[in-house]
Amino acid sequence: MTTIKEIARLSGVSRGTVDRVLNNRDGVSEETAERVRTIAKQLGYKPNKAGVALAAQKNKYLIGIIVFSRKNPFFDKVIEGFLERAEELAFFGCEVTVKRVAYHPEAQMSAIEACLDEGVHGIIITPYNDTKVCDKLNEIIDKGIPVITVNSDAENVRRIAYVGSDYYNSGAAAGALMQLMTHDKVNIGVILGDRNILCHSKREAGFIDRLCEDARFDIVSVKENYDDDLKSYDIVSEMLKTHPEINGLYFTAAGVYGGCKAIQESGIGRDIRVITHDDVPTTIDMLDKGIITATICQDPMWQGARSLELMFNYLSSPEEMQIRGYYYAELNIKIRETK
Amino acid sequence: MTTIKEIARLSGVSRGTVDRVLNNRDGVSEETAERVRTIAKQLGYKPNKAGVALAAQKNKYLIGIIVFSRKNPFFDKVIEGFLERAEELAFFGCEVTVKRVAYHPEAQMSAIEACLDEGVHGIIITPYNDTKVCDKLNEIIDKGIPVITVNSDAENVRRIAYVGSDYYNSGAAAGALMQLMTHDKVNIGVILGDRNILCHSKREAGFIDRLCEDARFDIVSVKENYDDDLKSYDIVSEMLKTHPEINGLYFTAAGVYGGCKAIQESGIGRDIRVITHDDVPTTIDMLDKGIITATICQDPMWQGARSLELMFNYLSSPEEMQIRGYYYAELNIKIRETK
DNA sequence: TTGTATGCGTTATCAA
DNA sequence: TTGATAACGCATACAA
Asked: What is the average per-residue pLDDT within B212-223?
């Protein structure tokens, strides 16, 4: 392993000078700089990470993370991903502060304020789609605090990147799965989360666009459950009663457990294919019980880990980072036997 | 962050003594040791990784990795996993030497020898199931060199762990998927890799056990392709000709591309569900073309990363490691829309 | 423009 | 049984 010391010795200058050259600081004559660069390249110099880490220990970057509350267990896994990567990055001077807040613009606003008070250098957020929140985000971005959206994006916010799933595609995948797992005539009921949530309506579009092309399918009912299990229970009960012909159900978002309870009760004796998203514990339970046929997952741990990594890299060396606007999670289909 | 220095100051001893206590070296009076331990626990001391790394830089552990040759692209991803984790562990003194060898006992034997010559401290291997290889492995294990099997296990080898997929389960999952994606009467053809490979026959068993319970299914033909694309092409062509009733195919292992070529030619006009394993580029291609219905993946990158991590932890602190015998990969179903 | 000195946290060596 | 000190590779403040 070549070290700075070694390069200094071979090029006949001091370690300080080598450091200046290698880190593009000024105050070095072009002549010596050139010599040092040549030698460094010859030896294939790579900075030693442990050395860098040790020298940079004084917590350079604090990153604020804002996701939804503990009531939504999906984010448990996202946070696991954050924390796993945070531990790794800790010795490069990365610290995180995690806020889980209610699904409300106000709650998000004050979480953002709290982050600013703590002096964060960047914010990773699952934004509520509300103009006030979006304006606030653009405001802090203008102040020089970069923002990354995770799991759900926000339109017109100048975030440096979005990390999460491609919702239209995941809806289309659900549609394709429904095609593969059914035959003959299929009457579909769709249970949305909330039409005002960008990502939910994209899934709906992907699913419906896919099945529209196929004469086997009829979408006979579409309802919103507002991600609420109780509401979901009522809606699905009602739906199954009003439409005895329904033999396929698609849940675009949360409220899966309540809906499945309804299927257990009102769907007795009917053979209904049920496709959902994500694998929170209650969904796994319903997969086990045979109520859910398949669920499409979006690697929540990866979303947390990747977004933190991106933010940290962006903060520590923005110039040598080419960042894309979108980082899409892999989709992962699970059935009872692969859960 | 509490440091050794801090603990030393508070307990009124030197850093050296604290180090001795915390690392269970002897030469410290029980009295002071106890005091230091108490204070360390109070402060919640955690060794600083960057510090440990820097001090331990002199490549303590060399780990040999032996997997199958470049002809089998599945292992490309496994190796990616190895290298990714290797880079992380590099600054804790982990070095790896990777050998990709032919699917032969002799090739494996000499790869093992080569590793020993290089002075490896542990070996991670996808073993060929052959008594000579197994004996050799037990021999080096007796010499004190731990072995971990990855992707495929070996019976009667005293390896510390197996990291890979649960083949019986993945076969059963393939069976379940076949059930979900078909209706009415289904006549199945099964294309095995090689019956002598433990994992292949386990998949076969899982698949068949699953479908035996279901009167809808008949297994009408089972053939071996010895993981060879040309042989696979011939077998599938023949199979489709002899059994015009076949409408479901299951490939337990490699040779998928050759088999799919045969389906493209001999299966014209027939609606055949095809289920395979893994997502090597040629398989993705056939998924795209609509020949393969679904493929069940086994997270090859994870297999590489996890096995290396296990081995390194075992080497660096065997006493404080409780190791399980089996580490199973998550299964991940892919269809064209989620590839 | 360049060189020197110091510190980051841990481990290891030598001295007491 | 303990303490003092050097070393690991890098960054940086300060001196020349």
From this structure: 96
Tell me which residue has tokens 């009295």: B31
The gap from C-alpha B303 to its chain's centroid, in whole angstroms, comes to 4
CA distance B249 to B292: 9
From the list A45, A24, A56, the residue with the least C-alpha distance to B54 is A56
Nearest 10 degrees: Cα torsion A106, A109, A110, A115:
160
Domains of chain A: 4-46 (1.10.260.40), 56-165+301-330 (3.40.50.2300), 167-297 (3.40.50.2300)
What is the residue-averaged pLDDT of chain B?
Answer: 93
The tokens 């190895």 sit on which residue? B82
Cα angle B106, B110, B115 (rounded to 5 degrees) comes to: 150
- Say how many residues make up chain A: 339
Nucleotide closest to residue B26 (CA–C1'): D1
* Residue pLDDT, tens place only, B32-70: 999 999 999 999 998 888 888 888 776 678 999 999 986
Residue A90 has pLDDT above 90, yes or no: no
Cα dihedral A285, A69, A206, A196 in deg (nearest 10): 130
Interface test with B, best of A95, A170, A333, A336 (most B CBs within 10 A): A333
Identify the band that residue A59 occupies on the pLDDT scale cut at 50, 70 and 90: low
Neighbours of A174 (CB within 10 A): 30
Instruction: Quote the DSSP letter at residue A193.
Output: S
CB A200 within 8 A of CB A253: yes
**Chain A residues near residue B334 by CB distance under 8 angstroms:** 332-333
Mean of pLDDT values over A224-240: 95
DSSP letter for B329, please.
Answer: P
Chain-centre distance for alpha carbon A116: 22
The two tokens of residue A214 are 């196929």
| Partner-chain residue, chosen from A49, A91, A173, that has the shortest CB–CB distance to B337 | A173
